[in-house]
Amino acid sequence: KASAAQGFALQVDGRDYPLNAQGFGEVTFTNQYPMALVDYADAACPVAVQLEAYTPFIPLNRDESSYPVVVMRYTVTNRSAKTQDVGIAGWIQNRWTGKAAKRSVYRHLGDIATVECAAAAQNGNGMALGIFGSETPDFVDVNKTTEGVKGVFAAGKEATEGTSGIASIGRQLSLKPGESQTVSFAVSWRIPNVRYGTGFGKKT
């Protein structure tokens, strides 16, 4: 079974396009440190996508360059002659492997909305997938029960807290011919209870 710990996808004209080599026939990677560029195109898809991915980097500043986050900035361009309604969303799997039950929470904090995955017990460990912008996300699911793309483009947010092992978040775009729009995500994590060389979690 393929791993689906985390990923992103588009939906155009009711068809899902995973943002990887399975969803797009032409995927090009360009390394321009500290920025990584990935271009996605496919003859069957009326839009093209460019990903700019990076982690914070400030030369000679260790602390400001050590934030546990990856920013994923997707620019979607309509290559067709008609307006395209495009969904873009990501999902994250709750990878907590301890004995405690899993917990997923949706939060909207000013200019970022997140789905946060952790153990139900408040031990401080967790991962989150966020989407930048003051607008409410169009797609939120903290009770996603299937791995991968399926279900990430279900509209609305029926719950703000769940116990599923997967959560997703995304936005709907309307692109005129030739128009581009950018949606920025953040994948972040917090694992303060680390025992280097011996494992993770609090000592018992």
Q: In short, what is this structure?
A:
This protein has 204 residues and is mostly beta strands.
| Integer average pLDDT | 86
Percent of residues in beta strands? Answer: over 45%
Helical amount: under 10%
Structural class: mainly beta
Q: Rough shape?
A: globular
Radius of gyration over C-alpha positions, nearest whole angstrom: 18 Å
Low-confidence stretches: none
Distance separating the two termini = 34 Å
Question: What series of H and E elements makes up the topology?
Answer: EEEEEEEEEEEEEEEE
Assembly state: single chain
Q: Quick one: how many beta strands?
A: 16
Placed side by side, the strands forming the largest sheet appear as 3-4-5-6-14-10-9-8-12
Please tally the helical runs, counting DSSP H or I stretches of 4 or more residues. 0
Largest sheet: 9 strands, antiparallel
Write the layout of secondary structure elements.
Blueprint: E1 6-12, E2 15-18, E3 26-32, E4 35-41, E5 47-54, E6 69-78, E7 84-93, E8 102-109, E9 112-119, E10 126-132, E11 139-144, E12 161-162, E13 166-175, E14 180-190, E15 194-195, E16 199-200
Antiparallel strand pairs: 1-2, 1-7, 3-4, 4-5, 5-6, 6-14, 7-13, 8-9, 8-12, 9-10, 10-14, 11-13, 15-16
